[in-house]
Amino acid sequence: MNSIRVFAPATVANVACGFDIFGFAVANPGDQITLTTREEPGVSITDIFGDEGRLPREAERNTAGIAIQTYLQHIGRTDVGIDVVLHKQMPLGSGLGSSAASAVAGVYAINELLGRPLPTVKLLPFAMEGERLACGSAHADNVAPSLLGGFVVIRSYNPLDVIRIETPASLFCTLVHPDIEVNTKDARFILKNEVSLKNTIIQMGNVAGLIAGLMTPDYDLISRSLVDVIIEPVRAILIPEFHEVKQAALDNGALGCSLSGSGPSMFALSRDIQTAERIGQAMQQAFLSVGITSDAYVSDINKQGPKVLESSVLS
Amino acid sequence: MNSIRVFAPATVANVACGFDIFGFAVANPGDQITLTTREEPGVSITDIFGDEGRLPREAERNTAGIAIQTYLQHIGRTDVGIDVVLHKQMPLGSGLGSSAASAVAGVYAINELLGRPLPTVKLLPFAMEGERLACGSAHADNVAPSLLGGFVVIRSYNPLDVIRIETPASLFCTLVHPDIEVNTKDARFILKNEVSLKNTIIQMGNVAGLIAGLMTPDYDLISRSLVDVIIEPVRAILIPEFHEVKQAALDNGALGCSLSGSGPSMFALSRDIQTAERIGQAMQQAFLSVGITSDAYVSDINKQGPKVLESSVLS
């Protein structure tokens, strides 16, 4: 009986201006998964902790389960039997890439357990199947950074073209998750199908500035580029006190602040851990001023992707 | 009597995916300007060569003239008297940044002639006034690369935020100007005011890929990113044989090929001068197959901006 326990990081998709094409991974929070081999072929979810009973237990309806199943089919190992225990360590439907972290943890773990038949980057399509299940489309802006670590551009989906962007040395992330829920599908539904050419140009300028700012690195340029004129103005409506919370982050030294993915969580970037902590307190206080409690996570950027926490593998 | 002769480079605006936010300068062609001081205050265009009599001779209606006048007003030196001779060395209305090169040459020359009271980057707004005269709006995607050299992002116009992107070592440009004319205002008029969100996302992915490709450098990534799904499909209609000419460039080793600015000139990038030459011949041949003659320019990227060719300054 072999077993492995893997951590995969939460992620911030979009990163203000980069709707659907950009994301990064954080050191904390993240999900953990434990896989244990068994004799009977197939994938079973034997337990899920931390989801308050809300996630499906059937493997083919669970993001981690489907990712592992799709992977085993692809490598022709449907003979393998796997018991899965999922340890959710972040809120669901939060905009923190919860489903992506579980899918990435699952597919990374099974690949490790089987002696790494595929290189890490080749695991992406299987994790994306988990996203298809969770969100209705196989988007990659959470799974790619969760799997590869750091900042990742999804240049194209057809064919899939994923580019890692070097992470600046001094960059910290504050995540604040207010205790309200926004459904990812709703958050997408309210977006307009058309964008003015004027706003497209402004957004492209900020995307170019953000990539250049990260790669130089030029923190002022990063800050000036963390501006979203297309998505944020629409989705902010779903978050009570959005503008006050954002202003609290900026007033306390954030390089920028916007929705994390489709929200309701909000992220802020800053240059040191003390600033990141102070930003978190200010953002929480702003939410609390209208009676909304929240959780805050402060960490550096995850640069490595998933991590094996324990393994007991007999070859 | 002091005099100076300055060269300023032609430029490729947009660079496929970067409509209105991106451009680069080429080593050849470019415009030259000669300024000579005189006693009587004011700016006069005393001669223009190479324009077939088409450019206005009144200083306030000439892109170089207005750039110099605006500069002199700004630094409070309307006492200065200047005779201007303009040597146009590229076709007008060609998409090669002809008006920008003249304006940049003019404002760079007057600043040098007066002992450089302003640093080069501060000259940009005056050159942009030349563009306002020529095109109806003070756009910067030609003047900024002509003035600063290399690849330049215009992240924002309000406030003006211009970012230089490092030029990869092995990059060459082929420019082909067919003997047809497209008016810049017409080329802008046919654009749609709305863009689908889907195409905005594709374009943002390519902008991110192009910046990352140039900065890494990663020539394959540059190549994959030189794709324009928003502007090129509309403007290509104005250029006979556009798709055949582009295919000829790609078949002969181009990393990418698209309109230079609003056309009708087309640019192609490649990794060595022999390939760049071959691409030029193939593009010209494709135009010639439908009876369109053309001029081709092959050069490396201009990395320095304008250059003083001669000066005779008594202090």
TrEMBL record, chains A, B:
Key words, A-Z: Amino-acid biosynthesis, ATP-binding, Cytoplasm, Kinase, Nucleotide-binding, Threonine biosynthesis, Transferase
Pfam short name (any one): GHMP_kinases_C
GO molecular function, one term: homoserine kinase activity
Boundaries of every GHMP kinase C-terminal domain copy: 216-287
Binding site for ATP: P91, L92, G93, S94, G95, L96, G97, S98, S99, A100, A101
Catalytic activity: L-homoserine + ATP = O-phospho-L-homoserine + ADP + H(+)
Location(s) in or outside the cell: Cytoplasm
Pathway: Amino-acid biosynthesis; L-threonine biosynthesis; L-threonine from L-aspartate: step 4/5
Superkingdom classification of source: Bacteria
Residue ranges constituting the GHMP kinase N-terminal domain according to the UniProt record: 66-150
Gene3D superfamilies according to UniProt: 3.30.230.10, GHMP kinase, C-terminal domain
The protein's Enzyme Commission number: 2.7.1.39
InterPro entries the UniProt entry points to: GHMP_kinase_C_dom, GHMP_kinase_C_sf, GHMP_kinase_N_dom, GHMP_knse_ATP-bd_CS, Homoserine_kinase, Ribosomal_Su5_D2-typ_SF, Ribsml_uS5_D2-typ_fold_subgr
Function, in words: Catalyzes the ATP-dependent phosphorylation of L-homoserine to L-homoserine phosphate.
Family affiliation: Belongs to the GHMP kinase family. Homoserine kinase subfamily.
Protein's UniProt name: Homoserine kinase
Organism: Spirosoma soli
Lineage summary: Bacteria, Pseudomonadati, Bacteroidota, Cytophagia, Cytophagales
